[in-house]
Design a protein that fits this description.
Elements lengths: L1 H24 L1 E6 L6 H15 L4 E6 L7 H13 L4 E4 L4 H13 L4 E4 L11 E3 L2 H15 L4 E7 L5 H14 L5 E8 L4 H14 L5 E4 L2 H13 L5 E6 L2 H9 L4 E4 L2 H16 L7 E3 L3 E3 L10
Helix pairs in contact: 2-10, 3-4, 5-6, 7-8
Length: about 300
C-alpha cells in the first residue's frame, strides 16, 4: 500500500511539473488598442485573436482605454502590463508624445514593443505595422482636387490632437492641396474620431463657411457625423472619410459620402501578434510593414462589402 501511495504521489508530482513546463512555454503577448468602441478596433482585435489561435504557445490579451482621447488610461494599461512582465507588446499609441515614455520603460524592462496603426519617432520600436497614412491622405486629397476641378473651399476634420496617424493623413492631403492655388483649406479642426463631435464641428464650419465645397475627415465616424450636419443644413458637400467601415462604404454606395480610404485593421492585429511572436523567438523582422490603402468610391464600393 505504501509503495502504491509513493507511486501515486510521484505521478502527481510529474503531472504537476509537466503542467508547469507547459505554462512556462506559454508566451504572453498584449495588444493595446486606442479603444474598442468602433468597427475598426474590433477588426484589429479579431485579427489578433485569429493569429493567437494559430499559435498555441501564445496567450493573448487585448486591452484599450474607454475612448481614444483617454491617453493616460492607455499609459496606465501599459504600466500594468510591464508589471505583469508580458513577453511582448503591440501598441497603437493614443498620443505618441505621452505614450512613448512608457514604451521606453517597457523596452528597458526587456519587453519588445511593436507599433500598430500609429507610428512614432522612437528608435527602440521593433517595427511599425500599419497604413502609410500620408499616402492614404494623399489619395483623399487627390480625389477631392479632381472632383472639385482644383478649386473651392475645403475643410479638414481630424482626430485627437497629437495623434500621429491623423497628423500624417492631414499632411498627405495638404501636400496635394498645395499644388492647386485655387483650392483653399479654410478650416482644420479636431473631432476626436467621434461621430457626434464630427457633426458638431461640421455645423460650426458650415456656419462660418456656407459655401464649403469639400471635407476630408480623417476617419469614417467623423465623416458620417459631417454628412449628418451637411444634410441637416441642406448642403451638398463632397465628404471623404478614412477606414472604409461597412456603414461608410454603404453610404458611398447610397450617395452619401463621396469616398473613403480603405485600410486593413484586421491585418494590423494579425501581423501584430505574428511578428511579436517572431521577435520573442529571436527572429529578425522588417522595420516597417505596410498593410496598404485603397480609395473606395461608388465604382468599387461593392467589393468592400463582401
Amino acid at each position: 500500500m505504501r509503495r502504491i501511495s509513493v507511486l501515486a504521489l510521484a505521478a502527481c508530482v510529474a503531472l504537476g511539473l509537466a503542467a508547469s513546463a507547459l505554462a512556462a512555454d506559454k508566451v504572453k503577448i498584449a495588444v493595446v488598442c486606442k479603444a474598442l468602441d468602433s468597427e475598426f478596433w474590433m477588426a484589429v482585435k479579431r485579427g489578433a485573436e485569429d493569429a493567437a489561435k494559430a499559435l498555441p504557445e501564445v496567450e493573448l490579451v487585448v486591452l484599450a482605454p474607454d475612448r481614444e482621447i483617454n491617453v493616460q488610461q492607455q499609459v496606465q494599461i501599459i504600466e500594468d502590463l510591464i508589471t505583469q512582465k508580458v513577453n511582448a507588446l503591440a501598441v497603437a499609441p493614443c498620443g505618441t508624445a505621452e505614450v512613448v515614455p512608457v514604451l521606453e520603460k517597457a523596452h528597458k524592462a526587456g519587453i519588445p514593443v511593436l507599433l500598430i496603426d500609429t507610428d512614432a519617432d522612437w528608435p527602440n520600436k521593433k517595427t511599425y505595422i500599419g497604413t502609410d497614412n500620408k499616402q492614404g491622405g494623399a489619395l483623399a486629397g487627390e480625389y477631392i482636387a479632381k472632383v472639385l476641378g482644383g478649386k473651392g473651399k475645403v475643410a479638414l476634420i481630424t482626430g485627437v490632437m497629437g495623434h500621429q496617424t491623423h497628423i500624417d493623413r492631414v499632411s498627405g492631403a495638404e501636400e496635394v492641396f498645395k499644388k492647386f492655388p485655387d483650392l483653399k483649406v479654410v478650416a482644420k479642426q479636431p473631432a476626436n474620431s467621434e461621430r457626434a463631435l464630427g457633426m458638431q464641428v461640421m455645423e460650426n464650419i458650415l456656419t462660418t463657411h456656407p459655401d464649403l465645397a469639400a471635407v476630408f475627415a480623417t476617419n469614417d465616424e467623423m465623416a458620417l457625423g459631417a454628412l449628418q450636419a451637411a444634410r441637416a443644413a441642406g448642403k451638398q458637400v463632397v465628404i471623404v472619410g478614412f477606414d472604409a467601415n461597412r456603414e461608410a462604404v454603404q453610404s458611398v454606395l447610397d450617395g452619401g459620402l463621396s469616398a473613403t480610404v480603405a485600410q486593413s485593421p484586421y491585418n494590423m492585429g494579425k501581423f501584430g501578434v505574428e511578428y511579436a511572436y517572431k521577435v520573442i523567438k529571436g527572429e529578425q523582422i522588417p522595420n516597417r510593414i505596410d498593410t496598404g490603402t485603397t480609395l473606395v468610391t461608388k465604382e468599387n464600393a461593392k467589393e468592400f462589402l463582401k
